[in-house]
Amino acid sequence: MTLRTILAAALLIVHGGAFADGKALFAKNCAACHQASGKGIPGAFPALAGSKFVQGPSADVAAVLLKGRGGMPDFSPTLADADIAEVLSYVRSAWGNQAPALTEREVSALRDTLKVEQFAAGQMSNKH
Predict the structure, then answer these.
(1) Any residues with CB less than 8 A from the CB of 108 and at least 6 apart, and which?
(2) 19-69: per-residue pLDDT in tens?
(3) Closest to 126 measured CA to CA, from 60, 59, 68, 73
(4) Which fold has domain 3-125?
(5) Considering Cα of 35, then 38, then 43, then 45, what sign does the dihedral take?
(6) pTM for this one?
(7) Which of 25, 35, 86, 109 is deepest in the core (most CB within 10 A)?
(8) Contacts of 64 (CB under 8 A, 6+ apart)
């Protein structure tokens, strides 16, 4: 067993599978613009790999997904707080990034602070 396999297994155990789910959520919702490599598209979509912003305060990063920023849409009506926490935890630890994971509770508290409507889990809620 390689060290990489052991580390991946440890991440899955510690985060309860959130790393794998976060990667899948990223692939579905973010990779078209930010690319699977996290390198973005220069001049159009910023790189997330090595980003000081992504690795900065978790509330700042989560606020972008909850409210949008620049040309990026908000994902508050289409992703539950647990999903936002998972995808951001993945992004903050992928491609060499080294920032702590987020919890559903942190995202939920920020949603309340920012006065962003609660996620509606209806079939018609996925606008992305």
Answers:
(1) 81
(2) 569 999 999 999 999 999 999 999 999 999 999 999 999 999 999 999 999
(3) 73
(4) Cytochrome Bc1 Complex; Chain D, domain 2 (1.10.760)
(5) positive
(6) 0.79
(7) 86
(8) 72
Q: How far apart are CA 14 and CA 33, in angstroms?
A: 29
Residue pointed to by tokens 């899955």? 12
Name the amino acid, one letter, at 64. Answer: V
Give tens-digit pLDDT for 85-117.
Answer: 999 999 999 999 999 999 999 999 999 999 998
DSSP 93: T
What pLDDT shows up at residue 120? 74
The alpha carbon torsion through 41, 46, 47, 51 (nearest 10 deg) reads 170
Concatenated DSSP letters of 4-73? HHHHHHHHHHHTTTHHHHHHHHHHHHTHHHH-TTS--BTTTB---TT-TTTTS-HHHHHHHHHH-BTTBP
Residue 117 token pair: 């409507």
